[in-house]
Amino acid sequence: MWPAYVTPGRPGRPTTQQELRWIYTAWLGAFLLKMLGSSWDVSWHFMWLRDDLAPPHLLNSAGTVLVVALVLFSSYTGYGVDRRALRLVQGGTAVFLVAVPVDIVNHRINGLDITSWSPSHALLYLGTAVMLAGVIRGWWLYAAPGRVRDAVALGLWLFLVENAVFPNQHQEYGVLSLRAYEAGRTTAEQQLLDFAAAQGQTPTTFMLPVPSWVHPAWLLCAGLLSLLVARRVTGLRWAATTVAAVYLAYRAAVWLGLVAIGFPPSVLPLALLAGAVAVDLAVSRRLPGWLAGPLVAAVTYLAGALLAAVGALPPWNWEPEVVLLTGAGFTLLWAGLDVVARSRSLTTWCAPLEEHGERPPVPVAGGAPTR
Question: Can you give the pTM of this predicted structure?
Answer without folding.
Answer: 0.92
